[in-house]
Amino acid sequence: MANYQICDFCGELSERTSKNMCPSCEKMYRKLRSIVEANPDTMVLDLSNQTGISVSRIVSFANKGFFIMTEGTIEIRKQHLRP
Length: 83
Hints:
Shape: elongated
Organism: Paenibacillus harenae
Protein name: Flagellar protein
Strand order of the largest sheet: 3-5-4
Structural class: alpha+beta
Order of helices and strands: EEHEHHEE
CATH superfamily of the domain at 25-80: Winged helix-like DNA-binding domain superfamily/Winged helix DNA-binding domain
Helix content: 25-40%
Number of helices: 3
Distance between the termini: 27 Å
Radius of gyration: 13 Å
């Protein structure tokens, strides 16, 4: 029997992962990450408009330590450099 978890970002029940996020949130995270890698210091609002991912979800990723936010811009946190 598989271990399950509640996603830290959306509250959905899914199989346990090392990042404590469901497949849907992981897909959003990877999408955000690829854009931020290509365009460091992207504005959070621009990132939200470009991806369709809510500002609150992006902020949630930052609050959990996946990104660093400063003055409205976002960058990848060094410990999460590997996908």
